[in-house]
Design a protein that fits this description.
Elements lengths: L3 H23 L6 H15 L26 H4 L3 H27 L10 H11 L1 H10 L3 H16 L3 H14 L7 H6 L3 H16 L2 H4 L1 H18 L10 H8 L7 H25 L7 H14 L11 H13 L5 H16 L3 H14 L2 H20 L7
Length: about 400
């Protein structure tokens, strides 16, 4: 049975999301540009028209995912766009409410240290993520669904359901190959069955469109997919919110190059290996651990050139950090609170409707959003090291 705080959150969040859609519609801003791309791409797949290299909806609306990733949108593509967009908006609304409550429930599952002000914790976490939630609703992207899929895969591994975890991981890669960052971690953890299942799911996802399109056309589509991903990329040292772009902008005065990319990538890898070795002494289970797993996912937009929306993937670490701050009696807690408050400005106020276009441009193109993401990740790591309390397995 849902707690009173959970029931209040469901009602308030649901009403706010519906009110937001009504306001977007009144102001002519309910385009859901990313969903338009998925919708038109699914129609292109159905009717054998151009799938890649064509802008859907807006000038930047190029489809850059695998042919398989159009298939979940085919049922919606059979409907009128206005009806389909409302259904998808409601799906995102339900996902936001479910995820917000479930991540809190998971992190609070240790009854011996249960927090008593769950309503306030939920409010603070939601406030911290509000800009990213609003962007997901406005654009109609798949980032929250992929995060939920990655979390479900994590829970499956904790429960020993490694085949299910691998199948989910393989499907996620077909949408956004950025999650390949988890493969070295699974190798470290010797999760061979996860990797084997993921490879099988990925291969099936590559072959499945051939049933409808034929082998030759399927090969052509995947070649176009690779080209679309290549065109979307830029020089990593020029991507402002990556660690390479941040170093290039703040430290090297734009004199860095590919060498700095390799050096910083090696430094991140070395730090993560150190953390894995240290963390193994804290918890002896060989299964993937929450802080390790979601640290890697949160780092994706700092390591690869992505859109602003992908910084939503830090949500699990944000939830973990605030739950620890509300729960633990820590010396110098003000340091962590100050760090999160500083991160809040570019991470959560990154909207032209709040700070104006000029300041929003500074956050996005000046590297401050990426820097804030690194501050959140670092704060969560330091809190974990301080508390050294393993998270429960559901």
């Amino acid at each position: 049975m849902a707690s009173p705080a959970a029931k209040r959150f469901i009602w308030i969040a649901g009403l706010l999301c519906i009110a937001y859609y009504i306001l977007e519609s009144i102001n002519g801003r309910s385009q859901m540009a990313d969903f338009r791309v998925y919708y038109d791409a699914a129609n292109a797949f159905l009717h054998d028209t151009q799938l890649y290299g064509k802008a859907f909806g807006v000038s930047s609306g190029f489809y850059k995912y695998s042919p398989f990733a159009t298939l979940p949108f085919v049922p919606l593509a059979l409907l009128d766009y206005n009806v389909a967009s409302i259904i998808y908006y409601l799906l995102i609304t339900a996902a936001i409410i479910w995820w917000s409550l479930y991540i809190l429930y998971y992190l609070e599952a240790d009854k011996s240290q249960r927090i008593h002000n769950a309503g306030w914790v939920l409010f603070v976490i939601t406030l911290f993520m509000a800009d990213h939630i609003e962007r997901e609703l406005h654009l109609g992207n798949v980032n929250l669904f992929l995060l939920m899929g990655a979390f479900t895969a994590f829970v499956c591994m904790q429960k020993g359901k490694v085949v299910a975890a691998g199948l989910l991981f393989g499907l996620i890669l077909l949408f956004k190959p950025h999650f390949i960052i988890l493969i070295p971690y699974f190798i470290w953890k010797k999760e061979w069955r996860v990797l084997l299942s993921a490879a099988g799911a990925f291969l099936c996802g590559l072959l499945l469109p051939a049933i409808a399109k034929g082998w030759k056309h399927n090969v052509e589509l995947h070649g176009q997919w690779l080209e679309a991903m290549r065109e979307h990329n830029v020089k990593l040292e020029e991507s402002p919110n990556t660690i390479y772009g941040i170093a290039n902008h703040f430290l090297l005065n734009h004199h860095g190059g590919f060498l700095i990319v390799l050096l910083l990538l090696a430094a991140v890898g070395a730090f993560f290996i150190w953390f894995l070795v240290r963390n193994r002494r804290v918890t002896h289970s060989g299964k993937p651990k929450f802080i390790e797993y979601f640290m890697l996912i949160a780092l994706i937009p700092n390591l690869a050139h992505t859109d602003t929306e992908h910084f939503m993937w830090t949500w699990p670490l944000v939830a973990y950090t605030f739950i620890q701050l509300f729960r633990e009696q820590l010396a110098n807690k003000w340091i962590y609170i100050t760090a999160m408050c500083l991160a809040f400005i570019p991470y959560c106020l990154n909207s032209p409707d709040i700070v104006g276009r000029d300041l929003r441009f500074l956050f996005d193109e000046g590297g401050l959003l990426g820097l804030a993401n690194l501050v959140i990740i670092t704060t969560s790591i330091m809190l974990y090291i301080r508390t050294s309390s393993p998270l429960p397995a559901l």
